[in-house]
Amino acid sequence: MGDEGPIRTDDGGEPARKRTPPRHRIEDDEGLGGRLGGRLKIVQPLKLRDFSLLWAGMTVSMLGDGIYFVAIAWQVLRLSNAPTALSAVGVAWTIPQVVFLLIGGVVSDRLDRRTILLASDIVRGVAIGALGLLSVSGNIELWQIVVLVAVYGAGEAFFMPAFGAIVPDIVPQNLLVEANALDQFVRPAAFRMVGPALGGLLVALWGPGEAFLIDAATFGLSAVCILLMRPQRRAVTTSSTSVLSEIAEGFAFVRSRTWLWGTLAAAAVAQLCFVGPLQVLLPLLVRENIGGGAGAYGLILAIGGVGSILASVTVSQQGLPRRQLTFMYLNWSVGTFVISYYAVATEVWEAMLASLVIGATFTTGLIVWGTLMHRLVPAELLGRVSSFDWLVSTGLTPVSFALAGPVALVLGNEATLALAGVLGGVAILAFLVLPGLRAGEVSAARLAGKGINDGSDVAP
Predict the structure, then answer these.
(1) In which domain, by residue range, is 190 found?
(2) CATH number of the domain that 180 lies in?
(3) What sign does the dihedral 355-270-414-149 (CA atoms) show?
(4) The whole model's pTM is what?
(5) Environment class of 328 (CB within 10 Å of its CB; exposed 0-12, middle 13-18, buried 19+)
(6) What is the pLDDT of residue 446?
């Protein structure tokens, strides 16, 4: 979204090779983690030097991503007021992710994950920097945005599996909940709160081009942080097996765990319903129904970050409940249903309230999911399983973007967004009753209690 030990297949097949667990260096005990760790559990992973650097780089990069999502929406709207234009950009961003994610997962398990993160930051920074230069020059066209956003999406396809897999390489098992909570603290704080608010301000004061250039600079700072990391080198796979064989090995693991493939399928269907309508139609509704501009849109996204931060701190302090999968599904379903409220909001504060609830519930579910992945998936498979996670859960996102504009032209913006929230919430609840899915939470609780992190003895 773990560690040593063999994988026991459900059919009694050959166990996978056992690996040596990584050593985690704890340094700077008098730093932020050392001073606050006794009071706030969420900051305890910051005592780990490499995790602190990863966290710092992610924070800066996520801040830039928050700026980017406001800037790209307003840049496209300057060129075309049609929802289909935003749909086209969304499709261009997500299709390369779908195409390259599985390859990115194999590369993450074969090569040094730190190097992959570094290369991904450079590629994405160059793409966004080019967007900024074109926009500032006044010569930007929609086709250029589509091409550069596609390059940006391809870079993400390699970054996401590597980032998800490197966390248990540098964080001990007993701090995984806190590390995932801190991850989900930073993402909304930077990506949904400070970033969008700053993005709205930058676009209003200077324009999208300058905002893109600042985003590109954040990738450079993130790359420096990753370059300074010195994680213990893990055994890199030198197997002669083909990429397809390694992808098949990851797929076999996913297929053998109902809690895993069931949740991925639930996410895929739900995001098919709401991601496109939310990204494409919310900026239009803010401008047309609420009468706001880029600043109001950024503020609405920002308050969702507040909800996410509150959820992150709460979960890190209280820990996870015993019925972790049920807890995760219920949070995600509530947040998805609330998306429908955007369709009837006529004031900024109403949309902010909806964003607050969505941010809190989605983040709570993501903390649970990330912890389950890190605890129950062996490290030698985590890159590939993470790539399947991203692929399956987002694989239908291009379709969602492609459908959002045309459906809105037929049903109207409000009806489309309201229907998206309802259908997505119902889909999540439907998968919760999938036979065998909740059996996995019993094993998750048992492994957490024993401090085991190997993926063995996990219910299908």
Answers:
(1) 32-232+241-450
(2) 1.20.1250.20
(3) positive
(4) 0.65
(5) buried
(6) 55
